[in-house]
Design goal:
About 30% of the residues lie in helices and about 20% in strands. By secondary structure, the chain is α+β, with helices and mostly antiparallel strands. It has a 4-stranded mixed β-sheet. Strands 1-3-7 form a 3-stranded antiparallel β-sheet. Helix 2 packs across helix 3 and helix 4 runs antiparallel to helix 5. The two termini are about 30 Å apart. About 35% of the residues are buried.
């Protein structure tokens, strides 16, 4: 897991180029809550760009004939005064945090604790892991939050294979991002 530090380059995949992120345009019920999500993996950003382009086409945000998605690249200018929380691995605490942000009625205290952070980072629970997370939330492995259910879910996620993500949750955090460029990604 890469630590957030001055000078590193992070990537954001989307159906459009993003030069100036706006928290108001960010979805609420993502892994670490509302925020602008980036990754240190350009390949992960490329994959996500293609997924969001497909969703954007189905919702009519872009024309059905659109042939490109975008990877926007940002350099971190400074992290000195940011309040950052990092999950080093996909463990039970990470799992509970993701579920707390996806469902507002569970692990409420944990979600409240996370509100004070400008940036939260950890492994990404992407579309490949969504089925397992949904099964966990549906109590398929036992009661959500029980030791049995937590262990089963984590074991199925294969945390060592998951990429990282950084959720920039505040305007203060966004101000630390310096836009470098956007690159087109072919959808074909």
């Amino acid at each position: 897991m890469k630590n957030l530090s001055e000078g590193i380059v992070l990537y954001h995949g989307s159906y459009c180029a993003v030069e100036d992120p706006d928290l108001e345009k960010c979805a609420r019920f993502k892994d670490f809550g509302r925020g602008f999500y980036l990754t240190s993996s350009k390949e992960q950003a490329k994959s996500f760009a293609k997924i969001t382009a497909t969703k954007a086409k189905s919702r009519g945000y872009v024309s059905a004939g659109e042939k490109f998605a975008y990877i926007s690249c940002f350099k971190i200018e400074s992290v000195a005064d940011l309040n950052i929380f990092a999950y080093e691995t996909a463990d039970v605490n990470w799992l509970h945090c993701i579920v707390a942000h996806r469902r507002k009625d569970v692990f409420v205290e944990l979600r409240k604790q996370m509100e004070s952070y400008d940036v939260i980072s950890g492994k990404i629970a992407n579309d490949d892991t969504n089925t397992t997370i949904m099964a966990y939330m549906g109590n398929v492995f036992g009661e959500m939050g029980s030791e049995q259910s937590d262990k089963m879910c984590i074991s199925l996620l294969l945390p060592e294979r998951l990429q990282d993500q950084f959720c920039f949750r505040t305007d203060k955090a966004l101000s630390k991002l310096h836009f470098l460029k956007s690159e087109k990604v072919s959808l074909e």
